[in-house]
Amino acid sequence: MKEIIKGILGGKTFSTIVIVLMLVMLGFAVIQCIRYFFKAPLTEYCTVMMEGEYSVDGGEWKKIDPKVPISDHFHKIVFRGTPVIEALAYNNMTISSQNVWYTLKAGDEVLLEYRYIEYEIEDAKPAPSELMKNTPGYWIITDDFMDYPDEVMNGEKELTLEVEYPYEMATQSFSDCFGVSLSVTDSVYWLFFFEALPSVLLFVLVCFFGLFFFPVSGFILGRVNYRYLAFGVLCFFWGLYMILQNISGYLNLWITDPVVCMMVVKLTGYMFITSVFLYLKSNMQKFITRAVANITTLLFFLTLVSVLALHLTNTADLIVTEPSVFVVIAICAVLMIVLLCAEIPGNRNALVFLISWTPLLLTLMLDVIDLYVHLPGSYLFNYGLAVTMGYQIVRLIVDLRKQYLETIRYQKMQKELYEAKVSVMVSQIQPHFMYNALSSIAMMCTLDPEVAQEATVTFADYLRGNMDSLKQTAPVPFTMELEHLKKYLYIEKLRFAELLNVEYDIQATDFKLPLLSIQPLVENAVKHGVGMKEDGGTVTIATKKTDTAYEVVISDDGVGFDTEAHRPDDGRSHIGMENTKKRLHDMCGGKVIITSVIGKGTTATVILPKEGQNHENTVRG
What we know:
Blueprint: H1 2-10, H2 13-37, E1 43-46, E2 50-56, E3 61-63, E4 76-83, E5 92-98, E6 101-106, E7 109-114, E8 138-144, H3 150-153, E9 159-164, H4 174-177, E10 178-183, H5 188-195, H6 197-220, H7 226-247, H8 258-282, H9 287-312, H10 322-343, H11 348-355, H12 358-373, H13 380-428, H14 431-447, H15 449-468, E11 476-477, H16 478-496, E12 500-506, E13 512-513, H17 519-529, E14 537-545, E15 549-556, H18 573-588, E16 591-597, E17 601-609, H19 610-613
Parallel strand pairs: 12-14
Antiparallel strand pairs: 1-10, 2-3, 2-4, 4-9, 5-8, 5-10, 6-7, 6-9, 11-13, 14-15, 15-17, 16-17
Helix pairs in contact: 1-13, 2-13, 6-7, 7-8, 8-9, 8-10, 9-10, 12-13, 13-18, 14-15, 14-16, 15-16
């Protein structure tokens, strides 16, 4: 999984986007093929199983078209007529209903009924719920036509179907609440396989994507990223929400209590909204906006706890409290939009992010209006949600890829810095340097034992400082670097004696720089400057502070060199110098300026911007 994610993040942006879009399009194409080119074996779909007419809420009678969904919104809808001709070829009828009671009669005889009834027969079918008697929930039932009277199936007796929505609030369209399928055998599982399973499998992948891709991606970047985790949670609940939307008509096959079926679907939708608020909050950067977003999300969560408590105590079910929850969602959504707008000044990404949620907000408003105005379409929310989530996924993958490549670049830079420090350390403890230092100390053991003892301790401290530099990744105070330089110059002084003079002009010490970044410059001044001069010379180390930077100046009055001439690649000092320049630039934004005059000496000036001192722990590109 980790390698797959690395492969996606490490690829080109365009290729990544194309792969994601192709997978999504392929998934939906497979779904459409299964739905439109295949059908459940020996099964027929219809709005209701009769031909005739229907009336909505006592209004005028309209003709029934069994093949066309009924988009009317209703509180009570009555159908009357005779069984469809296709019904004669089938044995079973499966009815799937959501939040409605219904009764099917032949004359005065009740053929099929779903409503809360106190059964007195011991072995009778149990009621949907013993507590919530006014809550229909989600119900699915298969009835055998063979039990119906012959005059009913032959069309000699009129059928009447009454469907009642028991709540005062606006309902969904009829076909969203009630559906009928005819089959030769009890093939409700075939219906599920062909109608719902393809979408379920697709959104199971979305859930998996949310659970693993973004969290693992955050870990690959080397840290826990709250925004990626929040989007992973959002992706998971989006997939779960869409799964339950697709199987809501079949949920009663596995959860026998219709009220629990309804509760599971509603709570999943509410958890999805909660995850949206959490994700929106994760994209806020200002302290005040994040604080208000936290309060807003907590307010919505407390609302969910309240309505769930009302549901479980049989005070008001989740359908009754749904309008109140929608009001809270609207208030919280407006607050979140206002907070995102407050993020826009100085943050162009906040504006783009806000605009990306427009399809979701627009379709949501249209679905709310549809409850009262009855627009031609319904459930536009799912389409707007798909567009918005698709954009968010692509956006996050592109963002992850950028950060992943930046992390790779940072790790590469850290490796180069480590190698540079090793190079500097090795350059300071090359065999000839160690031999010279030990020879000088050995000589002092005879001439001046006390000096020899001090030199031995100083040399040991110097070697320890070089080894410790391998563990140091951040800039260090200049005073630490200066102490290390003094140890190096002390050892070189033993060797060169009166031929090497060292002077210090330290006017500023309140700044930081990479460890061992000045030493290669001092080494060049000693070895290739005064060390090449017959009568020796002086090395001066000075520091000063300007309005915009700190400067470290290493100068010598040695032999000098032509800065324009090609320098031989001796694999030692010049490589160390290039590493020093790179470390100073990457860690502090500094630079090195070298000037030299043949016969007069060389000056190396290290310039460290004050701005870089405020971000000394960051690596600059």
